[in-house]
Amino acid sequence: MVPHSAKNLNVPAPRHRPGEKPEFDDLDISNAGALPRPHVMSDPKELFPFANGIIRVLNMKGQAHGEWDPKLDPEVLRQGLRDMLTTRIYDDRMQNMQRVGKMSFYMKSRGEEAVAVAQAMALDKDDMLFPSYRQQGLLISRGRDLLDMMNHCLSNAGDNCKGRQLPIMYTWKEGNFFSISGNLGTQFCQAVGWAVASSYKGEDAIASTWIGEGTTATADFHHGMTFAAVYDAPVLLNVVNNQWAISSFQGFAGGEKATFASRGIGYGMPGLRVDGNDFLAVYAVTKWAAERARNGGGPTLIELFTYRADAHSTSDDPTKYRPEDEARVWPLGDPVERLKGHLIEIGEWSEERHTQAMAEITSLVTQKYKQAEALGTLNTGERPPVSSMFEDVFEEMPDNLRRQRQQLGV
């Protein structure tokens, strides 16, 4: 309750509470194809409209419109759909494993699959990724073995993190996938630093990083933005606006005052706002920003406007703070269904092929799950030796750690 003396203060409140009927009729959503595609080296001052509109290619009938249409080969679109389906089926399996006590924690990306998969496909394999905890689609699209991903989540003998990380905090050096940090804002700063170093060494690889809209309210966001803008760092700074930071809606991060993409304007960098459930638009915007970065145009801030369709994590119950059917009425729909609809619309997919693909992926995920379970789960299987906790940080172990190890007798 806000006291009367504070009557002029604005205390944000979500548009719906549990038990209320959700609707989004007043959202200002651009029509598909309405915004033109500017030259990649445009002056940021000319790009203000792209920070306040929403770049879209697919309409809700699965038809592509406008200059942003990347006109991808159907085989590329089918691969994108398959990667998104794999991400969704993998997520469901892993959450089920948590529910039966075989792992401690999990976070699904339902509703946001296009963000990770389309962006991974638009970037080069040499580009460095600094993800948050809802971009498992990056790994899947880059070809990470599902068995390795499951081993990590189960903290078993095949876990490349040796059980030292929270499940879903993946890392994959060979795939240029930087370790995920629970303190998400750090990814912005580290990505900018990596990008500056890459440019300094004369290399072509760029960096791309992801945070949620809630993290824009932290200092790390502004530190990263400042350094990126000042040094023209070749980096894509992605803000995934899925409307909810756990139980805090996007208004608490300032989303009701201005778009998150418009934060870029104050730093003198392009801010692009894109329909995050539109695979084609996400791909096209990422390609645009990557080409700009590789040509010396510096950083781009991308707001991916989407909706978190499931709980924040297995420790969260969203029915306590939002209507149960809010995701169902989200006006930009579901990314998997929209790409599927587009492929059917252009005659490159069918319900029968979709059903077959779902069965094949489910079989693959089940096969990998059985292999991972055989290596151990949260409560079964071999554990790394206690002595391993002192390894892999320092090339030469400092004296204080050596003494601690001796005290443990390992």
Automatic annotation (TrEMBL):
Coiled coil: none annotated. One of its GO terms (biological process) is branched-chain amino acid catabolic process. The keyword Cytoplasm does not apply. Keywords: Oxidoreductase, Thiamine pyrophosphate. It is an enzyme of class 1 (oxidoreductase). GO terms for molecular function: branched-chain 2-oxo acid dehydrogenase activity. It catalyses: N(6)-[(R)-lipoyl]-L-lysyl-[protein] + 3-methyl-2-oxobutanoate + H(+) = N(6)-[(R)-S(8)-2-methylpropanoyldihydrolipoyl]-L-lysyl-[protein] + CO2. It holds the Pfam family OxoDH_E1alpha_N. The keyword tRNA-binding does not apply. InterPro entries: Alpha-ketoacid_DH_E1_comp, DH_E1, Oxoisoval_DH_suAlpha_N_dom, THDP-binding. Its EC number is 1.2.4.4. Belongs to the BCKDHA family. The branched-chain alpha-keto dehydrogenase complex catalyzes the overall conversion of alpha-keto acids to acyl-CoA and CO(2). It contains multiple copies of three enzymatic components: branched-chain alpha-keto acid decarboxylase (E1), lipoamide acyltransferase (E2) and lipoamide dehydrogenase (E3). This is 2-oxoisovalerate dehydrogenase subunit alpha. The lineage of its organism: Bacteria, Pseudomonadati, Pseudomonadota, Alphaproteobacteria, Emcibacterales.
